[in-house]
Amino acid sequence: MTSVKANGKLIRKLREKLLDGKKASQQYIANLSADREALAKFKGETPPVWINEFGNGWLSNVETRSDDLFEENLLRSLAYILGVSFESITFSEYESPYKGLQAFSTKDARFFGGRDDEARAVFDRLGEYNLVGIIGASGSGKSSLAFAGVCPLITAERPGWTLLSFRIKAKPLESLFHALDAWLFAEEQLDLPARIARFVHQLNEDSDALYHYLEGKQQNTGQIPVLLIDQWEELYVHNDEIERAVFLRNIVSAIQKGAVKVLVTVRSDFYGELQSSEPPFFKLLKPNLIDLEPMALDQLRAAVEKPLEETGLQFERGLIDQLLEDVGMDQGQLPIMQFALSKLWLGRDLQLNRVTFETYSNLGGVRNVIKTHADEVIEKLEPTERKIAKYTLPALVNLGEFGNDVKLSVPLSQFSAEQREVLWKLSDRDSRLLTIYRSNDVTKPGTETDFVEIAHEELIRSWPSLRDWLNDDIEFHLQVSRMRASYTQYQESGFDSDLLIPEGKPIEDAKYLLQTHGRQGLGEISGYIKASIEKWKKIELEDQKRRKVRSYVISAAAIFAFAGMVTASYFYLQANRTSALLEEERVKLVDSNDSLEFRRQQAVEALSELEAKNTELENLNDQLETKNIELQSAIARIQNLDARNELRLSFEALSKFFSSLHTACSDVAASNEATVWAAMQRLSRNIAFEVNSFERNNDLQFRGDSCAPLLRLRDAADIWSAQPERATNQQHPEVRRFFLAFDMLASEVNLMRAMIEARVVVGVMPKSPDDLRSGLRWLCETSNIQNCR
Residue 157 above 90 pLDDT? Predict the structure, then answer.
């Protein structure tokens, strides 16, 4: 069960004023919590079911024990009976709903008013486009609008968006990593420095690296990341061109490919830097760059009255009107008004929870409220502390070349112990001139450190003392600002000695700064100057050593100079003689070279002629090969024709043979003799004679299955002539088989002749008896001839 502190003084005041000025006792309020009918009659409505009973002793403790914790549900019941919000009676008397010089955060959204229309416009534009910007003057409320106006709308209406925010500062890639780390790398096993190094390396190597990271996470979670980048101008103040280019390329790639939505806030005096950003960033941003105008009167009133709903605070009648009139409509009025309201909150009547005209008058006027407050804070310091503040606070300002001065976020460790003590005092609850916070140290990945910065840039403009300190030695502060930028690059490079202060006037100016201001005035920059001085001292010592060595060499050269002259004279005479001889040889070589060149030209011409003859021979050879192929084709055609003719003649002889044979068989079949013995003997002899004659005369050898019917016919005739008793009966099976074999053979020979004739017609000759036989089968099948083997 949650327990919280209660604002006992405010609760007592509300209880006593509850019944139109008549005091309501603690017992009366406690009885209402216990009697629902009485409570319903008192409130004029049915009480919520969650109302809890409490006693008058408990209420007495709430009103008198400001440090105790009380049950939240009982305090909510009490707030309902008193007719105020729960937040108002649990709100710390020290925590102001007005933010002074600080921006509103997301947790301050319930106190943020006056910019509802602008918040909705930015939110709607972000729903349509992937890059949206809020631009306005310093102090116009850009950051407050983004965090306390737009972010709550995203949380309430876009559950599919994941909100991530950061400031760029120095090292934009590392700052981007820290914004994404918890969401993007929650399950990573690598330690923090390794994750940072990998992330930065990949973004440097690939402009689409950020897109791949975000796209992969979006596909896994279904969430669209929304990057809120506050104070975009830091990209131009703290980073060089290379860092800006890498950062912008990755951001633009992820935006264009729909992997992220980006909302930036930027000061209007950096519009020129926006325009010069690496393309196409400004082209994408310009159509959706929302110019935040100064708040109108009704908006300022809403900004004042919004916190009243949550805190129960009251203003004396007419005081808000007076406050708004004094604030006016000038640029930068918003932080002044907020600061004045925060001071009025601290000076309110706690018993009445009310701000009066007397409280307002004690501020000395709203226009002087920042100056008055800041001077009072400085005046409370010890004399030595005021001196430290005088030369330390300017170190928190970066002076622009054209007056666009900005506050700096500086590691607290850069200052001495005495300086840090003063800075802490200027940032405490009663001062609020500075803000000290803990954040990632981008120069040392994986570590955190304390940073300090001026609470708001309005102090730079509206606090005359700070401007005087800056103007007292403006050249010094400009030098320090430039040197600080160089020192940042030196740190980011891993302390590359090439980035130390150059020799000549820059190092001489740095030496003077170190002598006149020391570490207290320069912070860690003094170490940078000392390292630069040491570098050039070493270089000077090395130069001195080289000069000594050079002098020794010159002396030695002088000693040997005279001897060298004498020796040179002798060698000069010798050289003249040698030169004459060499000239004669050179002339001979020139003549020889001319002769060689003439011969080389002759050889080149002969080679050209030889190459031409070789080309002609190659052409003739190609022609001969073509003629040879044509001759071989003609020979083949002639041979093929001869073979067809020869085969046709062979089959004509075979046909005559079978005609003779058929006549003999017919004679046997028609014989009326009682025996066909003699006829079968004649037939057998005729068959043997005709077969042998056919083979001999036509040079056509029948072997194996190719002449099986003919052989069976001859064998049958031999059997019948040897066994005349079988031939006496023409119905004998052997006689029938004989005539069947004869018919089949005759059919086959006729088919073979037809096939040969067909093949001759189409110009295709069989290569063997088997080829002829297979062709016959095909012809039989396609012609549907019966009894075809």
Answer: yes
Tokens of 637: 């055609």
Q: How is residue 288 annotated by DSSP? A: G
Q: What type of residue is 678?
A: A
Q: How many Å apart are CA 707 and CA 692, to the nearest integer?
A: 13
What backbone torsions phi and psi does residue 135 show, to the nearest 5 degrees? -120, 140
Q: Is the pLDDT of residue 499 over 50?
A: yes
Q: Distance between CA 25 and CA 32 in Å, rounded?
A: 11
Residue carrying structure tokens 């602008």: 118
Would you say 438 and 167 are in contact if contact means Cβ atoms under 8 Å apart? no
Supply the mean pLDDT for the chain. Answer: 76
CB 228 within 8 A of CB 163: yes
Q: At what angle do helices 192-205 and 241-256 cross, to 10 degrees?
A: 80
**What's the pLDDT tens digit per position in 342-381?**
888 888 877 677 899 988 888 877 767 778 888 888 998 8
List all residues 6 or more positions away from 336 whose beta carbon is below 8 Å from its beta carbon: 139, 327, 366, 367, 369, 370, 458, 462
The pLDDT score that the predictor gives to residue 719 is: 56
Distance (Å, rounded) from C-alpha 193 to C-alpha 4?
A: 39
Point out which residues pair with 454 in neighbouring strands.
434
Q: How far apart are CA 249 and CA 207, in angstroms?
A: 6
- Whose structure tokens read 């010069």? 276
When pLDDT is averaged across residues 476-504 and rounded to a whole number, the result is 73
Q: Is 58 helix (H, G, I), strand (E, B) or coil?
A: helix
Classify strands 434-440 and 410-411 as parallel, antiparallel or unpaired: unpaired
d(CA 575, CA 587): 18
- Long-range contact set of residues 510-518: C-beta below 8 Å, sequence gap at least 24: 510/483, 513/476, 513/479, 513/480, 513/483, 517/391, 517/476
Tell me the C-alpha distance between 339 and 364, whole Å. 13
**What is the Cα–Cα distance from 74 to 82, expressed in whole angstroms?**
12
| pLDDT score for 699 | 42
> Coil, strand, or helix at residue 646?
helix
Coil, helix or strand at residue 410: strand
Q: Measuring CA to CA, which residue among 688, 745, 740 is closest to residue 718? A: 688
CB atoms within 10 A of CB 203: 22
Q: Is the pLDDT of residue 151 over 60?
A: yes
Q: In the numeric block, which tokens belong to residue 377?
A: 């804070």
Strand pairing partners for 398?
A: 406
Is the pTM of the predicted complex or chain greater than 0.85?
A: no
Position 713 pLDDT exceeds 70: no
Tell me what pLDDT residue 773 has: 53
User: Beta strand 3-4 with 70-71: parallel, antiparallel or unpaired?
Assistant: antiparallel
pLDDT in tens, 534-575: 887 888 788 777 777 766 656 555 565 545 554 555 555 565
Residue the block writes with tokens 């001839």 = 785
Helix axes 172-184, 241-256, angle to 10 degrees: 40
Of the candidate ranges 37-41, 106-110, 633-637, the one whose mean pLDDT is the lowest = 633-637
| Residue 582 scores a pLDDT above 50 | yes
